Amino acid sequence: MAWRSCSVLLRLTGDEGLRSSARGGRWPHSLQQRCGFRKATRKPESKKVEEELGPAHNESSETAVQRRTPTPHGDHPPSTPRAFAQLFRPFVFTVGVTGFSFGSAAIWQYESLKSRVQSYFDELRADWLEKVKPQKRGDVRKEINQWWNSLTEGQRTVTGIIAANAIVFCLWRVPSLQRFMIRYFMANPASRTLCSPMILSTFSHFSFFHMAANMYVLWSFSTSAVSMLGREQFMAVYLSAGVVSTFVSYVCKMVTGRFGPSLGASGAIMTVLAAVCTKIPEAKLAIIFLPMFTFSAGNALKAIVAMDTAGLVLGWKFFDHAAHLGGAMFGIWYVLFGHELIWKKREPFVKIWHDFRTRRGPGGGGGGDRGGAI
Predict the structure, then answer these.
(1) Is 46 considered catalytic here?
(2) What is the pTM of this model?
(3) Residue range 206-231, pLDDT digits in tens
(4) What does DSSP assign to residue 175?
(5) Cβ neighbours, 10 Å, residue 49
(6) Which residue of the set 20, 266, 321, 339 is catalytic?
(7) What CA–CA distance (Å, rounded) separates 111 from 119?
(8) Nearest-angstrom CA–CA distance, 342 and 231
(9) 266 catalytic per annotation
């Protein structure tokens, strides 16, 4: 089995109008690695199907562990007509997750604005108590709060994503959960479970290096992305990108017949990277290990798209180039058209939610006008 992995890390050089990840200032390129199963010979006396992992040249310590991991029974590549019929449910799931993500983000933003005044008074009260109450030396809670407050809004936004990825990584280490993890946390168009892995695999990493590289990319890139989109819109784009890139991967696997599972956050990260490179193509990027060589974000994006296109056409198997391209194209489309078509037209939906909250009231009953208007 091969895995999605980050192989190139980029960093931003200079100020291009957005807050670069100055504490991180790095603009990485995350590559998504493909996963492929090769079935072992079926033993006539056993009803269990065991699978070997990947070609020999891709083996590593984790592939040796995976070789002993059983896979769900019945995950066979479907015939061509049945294969395309199976894409209907993933397509509906992709549209549904995207709509739910942006709808939830709009409500989240509404509620954040609504509670801002109350939060202001709470902060004033907390500051007053801080001055009155004597401080303890070495107070761990205070140090944690100071560290948290020192982070940028983007870094605070992606902390939850990183925590979720770390939890899923730990679950991969539990032997009794291997079948469950393979079924629900690896996206495979030949599997009986098609929809839920499209989003769950975005938070799934088997290799520690794979997870660490992707999360480093996300952390260092988060400040600029959230500065551009805002935390609510960023989360909606990130979650939508996960299912969109996986759906594109499904389609390409159906067309080419190269079936196999995939996992990793690279498709979503490619969307964020492409969005920012499209928004500020003049930004200067540099490879982290070669900081003396710089190039524009626009040229970097062109090179990434060209490489993944070549990999898809030529059938390179080490990375899931279709998922990369799907994520990059979604990011470019969203900056050029999607922001206007989706986010800027959220007003009717927010008004419906506002009317619902006004009628319902903060206490859950008919509260008259207690909900108020923003």
Answers:
(1) no
(2) 0.75
(3) 889 889 988 887 887 788 899 999 99
(4) G
(5) 16
(6) 266
(7) 12
(8) 16
(9) yes
